[in-house]
Specification:
GO molecular function: manganese ion binding; metalloaminopeptidase activity
Low-confidence stretches: none
GO cellular component, one term: cytoplasm
EC number: 3.4.11.1
Shape: elongated
Domain Cytosol aminopeptidase: 327-334
Bound molecules: ligand BES, manganese (II) ion, zinc ion
Radius of gyration: 24 Å
Number of strands: 20
Largest sheet: 9 strands, mixed
Distance between the termini: 28 Å
Protein name: Cytosol aminopeptidase PepA (EC)
Number of domains: 2
Structural class: alpha/beta
CATH architecture of the largest domain: 3-Layer(aba) Sandwich
């Protein structure tokens, strides 16, 4: 994470200030501005200016004027986007630190801080001139009069989780193999105090996880199956909640090879579901939420190697069901199915899987939201949707009507891994449903996982989608 939030009681004459204020709100004028400056700001307000930068003797005062919006989620989102614009100014003026003064009286410090931290995120690991490219800005000070210090600590933790997820998605296959992903999980486990158990290829073979092993057949690198657990002394749930993340570290499509341009070229993002649940686990454990949480991450790359699984193959899955493979590019469901079956042993209260599963989901909503479906209660679905609106990681429910299952009938096996040309996100969900036997939600985040152009505080590349969604869902669950 490039930016840290610091809680402070006070500030001094030489601190750069960022003022959040509504248009025409003058409550703070007298305490901070000279008469002349007040006139300048008032004039700008009259003209409808949104941002003003006042250089004072020792410091800058950056004034961000928000238009009031009457619903809370929109107001918070607007605030995050304004913060993303501030980041450009902070970098331009080579500022390193600033103090936020939130005069809106609407407790927008957290949203503003989020916009700053996430817009100032950078992935510079592979640049020779990292130091010159690095953003000057590194610390935003939040005053206890606007937001309590324990909340600031939790925000840092949560944004660390988001940035960790972005880093994982932005890492190319040349570094992030399945084994390396499990190493990154162990590193994060040490930092956040959750336990990690990694099943290697021999263990996966011993368990006969046929779906994961089939996808791995074309690869030179072994698969991994990581099991993350957070179980504090006090928990609100007797039975665990299980998260499952698709960890395809690279998806060539396999023998059903993808075209390179606009398709395979960004398929390092195909472990974004895994990154999302890992980042959420990190935040939950570091914040010590009283919830028993388990994460499963089946991982491999999908390659057309010499021994690659082939269209027409019949695979015996971990559950014992057989699958006729008709398209090796429908690989995510193969390994998710094994993980979903593995989850049964925990007698879970709820299982949520996240995956960049189908182009169909991305086509439906673009990058503005994810598709979800599942067998969990209406109440649970409502709670997830609410978390989506709060975090701007929005969700739309798709149906799992039984008629869609017809498309998965095979002539030679229990089911096939490919549906018809329509409703691809749903037939993928229907396939997964076959391997569940508990309350379950499936999130297809193929659209919002990865951006080809920056979008305010969502930087280009991995977005970290899902971390805040799951964190807030679980926070809500525990209170
Ligand atoms: N990883 C892809 C889905 C994807 C598409 C992720 C776009 C991110 C952005 C997945 O494995 C895939 O290839 N799905 C196929 C399934 C089809 C062969 C049934 C698809 O959606 O085309
Ligand atoms: Mn694929
Ligand atoms: Zn894939």
């Amino acid at each position: 994470m490039t930016t840290v939030l610091r809680s402070n009681n006070n500030y001094n004459q030489s601190n750069h200030l960022i003022i959040l204020s509504y248009q025409n709100q003058r409550t703070w004028f007298a305490s901070l501005l000279t008469e002349t400056e007040q006139k300048i700001v008032q004039k700008a307000m009259d003209k409808g200016t949104k941002q003003l930068i006042l250089p004072q003797l020792e410091r800058f005062i950056i004034i961000e004027l928000i238009e009031a919006v009457d619903n809370r989620p929109d107001l918070e989102e607007k605030t995050r986007c304004i913060a993303a614009k501030t980041v450009a100014s902070l970098r331009k003026h080579h500022l390193e630190e600033a103090v936020l003064l939130d005069y809106t009286k609407d407790n927008l410090s957290a949203s503003y801080a989020e916009g700053i931290v996430l817009a100032n995120y950078q992935f510079l690991k592979y640049f020779k001139e990292k130091d010159t490219l690095k953003s000057s800005f590194h610390t935003l000070h939040l005053l206890t009069q606007f937001i309590p210090s324990n909340e600031v600590a939790l925000l840092n933790t949560l944004f660390e989780g988001v940035c960790a997820a972005r880093d994982l998605v932005n890492e190319p296959l040349s570094y992030l193999t399945a084994v390396q992903l499990s190493e990154e999980i162990k590193r994060l486990g040490k930092a956040a105090n959750f336990s990690v158990n990694v099943l290697d290829k021999a263990a996966i073979e011993a368990l006969k996880m046929g779906g994961l092993l089939a996808v791995n057949k074309g690869s030179l690198d072994p698969p991994t199956f990581s099991i993350l657990e957070w179980k504090p002394a006090q928990t609100v749930n007797k039975k665990p909640i299980v998260l499952v993340g698709k960890g395809v570290v690279y998806d060539t499509g396999g023998l059903s090879l993808k075209p390179t341009a606009n398709s395979m070229d960004f398929m390092k993002c195909d472990m974004a579901g895994a990154a999302g649940v890992i980042g959420a686990m990190y935040a939950v454990a570091k914040a010590a939420l009283p919830v028993h949480l388990i994460c499963l991450v089946p991982s491999t790359d999908n390659r057309p190697g010499l021994n690659a699984y082939a269209p027409g193959d019949v695979v015996t899955m971990y559950s014992g069901s057989t699958v006729e493979v008709l398209n090796t590019d429908a690989e995510g469901r193969m390994l998710l199915a094994d993980a979903l079956h593995y989850a049964k042993q925990y007698d879970p209260e709820l299982v949520i899987d996240m995956a960049t599963l189908t182009g169909s989901a991305a086509h439906a909503l673009g990058s503005q939201g994810a598709v979800f479906m599942g067998t969990a209660s209406h109440q649970t679905k409502k709670a997830l949707s609410r978390a989506g609106i709060k975090t701007q990681e929005r969700l739309v429910e798709f149906p799992l009507w039984k008629e869609y299952a017809e498309q998965l009938k095979s002539d030679v096996a229990d089911l096939k891994n490919l549906g018809g040309p329509m409703a691809g996100a749903i037939t993928a969900g229907k396939f997964l449903e076959h391997f569940t036997a508990y309350d379950w939600l499936h999130i297809d985040m193929a659209g919002p996982a990865y951006l080809h152009h920056e979008d305010a505080y969502r930087t280009k590349g991995g977005t970290g989608y899902g971390v805040q969604l799951i964190y807030h869902f679980l926070l809500d669950y525990t209170t």
